[in-house]
What does this fold into?
Amino acid sequence: MISTSNITSTSTKNISLVNTACMACTNEHCLIKKNLKSPVVSEFTKQRKQIRCKKGQQFIMEGAPVTGLFFLLHGKVKVLRTGLHGKEQIVRFAKEGEIIGHRGFGTKETYSISAVAIEDCILCYFSIENIQELLRVEPIFTYDFMLFYANELNKSEDKVKSLSQMTVRERVIDTLLYVNRKFGRKSSFISILLSRREYADYAGTTEEQVIRVLSALKKEKLITTKGKRIGIVDISLLQKEISEHNFYLDS
DNA sequence: CCATTAAGAGTGT
DNA sequence: ACACTCTTAATGG
It folds into this structure.
């Protein structure tokens, strides 16, 4: 679950931020950072624990008792649920500023999802007791939190729709647009490294299907590839292909 | 630095 | 889904 073992991060890109205080944090989208002007929230911040997580490391295990809530300070994470046949379904990807583990929170006493780092990560962690206390006493924060939940619910309903109504090709395209929107591009390639398998796990298909759709898109000059990297050439054509079916989602 | 090996991409059946 | 080839990344001398 929570990785206590934290090998001091070595070679990989300087993640040398040591105990970045919330005050100095640059994640403007973080719900805590956003509400720091509240003295209650600011005081609460002292309960924060910082956890480092290496690429590939799992820090939330589906089915394990809920202990707290994670805020992603740095890095990228995939959130997944193990399907009936042992297949993993990627529910969403997360980047800096996002909350992870919120679903096992409330009535549930175990996490309903797993979370694993797809890059070296730094996580901010708060125990469930601390968060609950904050939610009880600070309505401004609670309100933001509620908005966040409402939004999450929308997205997951949209995801269900896309999985059940789109063709494989459309789902792969939808996935490409989603990661492109979320992580952006760097020198004409989507700035995240995902295996074809991971694209498949998000799109709800198999690795082979993804590879085939990708090479078809490549032939049609809609995307380019270089190893694992994928670059979108004609984003509007891809969007069009999905929006024509009225399934273009902004999740 | 090069050579070996492992992992992942891509394709045909 | 499986088997196979090819490419690229990781490892170790």
Notes: Residues 206, 208, 227-228 of chain A lie near DNA strand C (CB under 10 Å from a C1'). Chain A has eight helices and twelve strands. The two ends of chain A are 27 Å apart (CA to CA).
